[in-house]
Amino acid sequence: MKFIDEYRDAEIAQQWLTAIDNITTRSWNIMEVCGGQTHNLIKYGIDQLLPNNINLIHGPGCPVCVTPLHIIDKALEIAKQQDVIFCSFGDMLRVPGSKDDLLNLKANGADIRIVYSPLDSLKLAQDYPNKELVFFGVGFETTAPTVALTLYQAKQLSLKNFSVLASHVRVPPVMKVLLDDKNHLVQGFLGAGHVCTVMGYHEYIPLAKDYQIPIVITGFEPVDLLQGIYFCIKQLEMGQYQVENQYSRVVNQQGNQPAQKLLHQVFDVVDQQWRGLGMIPQSGLAICAAYDKWNAEHRFSVANIKTQEPIECRSGDILKGLLKPNACPEFAKTCRPEHPLGATMVSSEGACSAYYRYRSHD
User: I need a surface site. Which of 15, 50, 88, 191 has the fewest CB within 10 A?
Assistant: First the structure.
């Protein structure tokens, strides 16, 4: 399959591994920002094939993982109400709230449905005019435009029984917060290719310049990842600190401008709480006043729900790249996919999930 098979070619991958080995003269710490990259790095064993002095550290690139606990509790409160059909992507169902999760609510009779697009929930709202349809919108700038389009369509249709519980976050602000942490280990970044498909990479240029750190926008297949690592190490070895675009077959500097325009029309940029990371300035996308009628947080009066994150879950340190999942004392013991302490164990992009699925832990 074009753009897939050639990026999984073992011979080409070995050539990039050899090239990486040839240019590496010292130890380097490289953080991949995206959870999809994390899973493929672990799934294909790329982290174990690299030279021993190249350390890959896993960043906060899983939007499910960084969704704050109080948002999960708001979702649970809405989902259990009578006459509500609560729609979500599948990877949100096992994410633990303070006392429950959506999958358990569904098992106990709540009408919770997995959809593959927020527009599916819009169709359900039209099919069930006597029900309240709520879509749980979670994600980075990658998925936010589809939610923005859904809200736009709901307004055009004047739908009265549809709303969105939104928890969308932006990548550049969290990268800045990581670099401002005096304990950070990051010397180079593999940038999130899918996010940059939408947003471009112009926001990363001042980050690379101000923090003197290379950022390589990278795809997700094995050859993509190895090439991105090579570009990053080459810059580090040469003392260069630029934004480089490995994923040029998909990403350009300005991104998808119609999608960006729609985002700006429907959402406001706000300060946002991140699970395990705290409040990050200008890192969230909140439904703007013009679309408040379709804001589930206000429609169901759950805005004031507050919660405390469990102290036994070390997901914050994992999301900062300060701890590998299998170094957590609870990993594969008290924290397993069937009984997770945090979202990093159950999300399809969570680092703990990747280690549990693809590494020996018994």
Answer: 15
CA separation for the pair 328, 312 (Å, rounded)? 10
Residue 4 confidence (pLDDT) above 80:
no
Domain boundaries, the chain: 64-170+255-299
- How far apart CA 212 and CA 214 sit, in angstroms, is 7
* 3-state secondary structure at position 325: helix
CB burial of residue 178 (10 Å; 0-12, 13-18, 19+): buried
Question: For domain 64-170+255-299, which CATH number applies: 3.90.930.12, 3.30.70.1290, 3.40.630.30, 3.40.50.11740?
Answer: 3.40.50.11740
Q: What H or E segment, with its residue span, contains residue 251? A: none
Containing 217, the helix (H) or strand (E) segment is strand 215-218
Beta pairing partners, 74: none
Q: How many CB atoms lie within 10 A of CB 334?
A: 13
Neighbours of 233 (CB within 10 A): 26
* Residues 342 and 335: beta-carbon distance below 8 Å: yes
- pTM of structure: 0.93
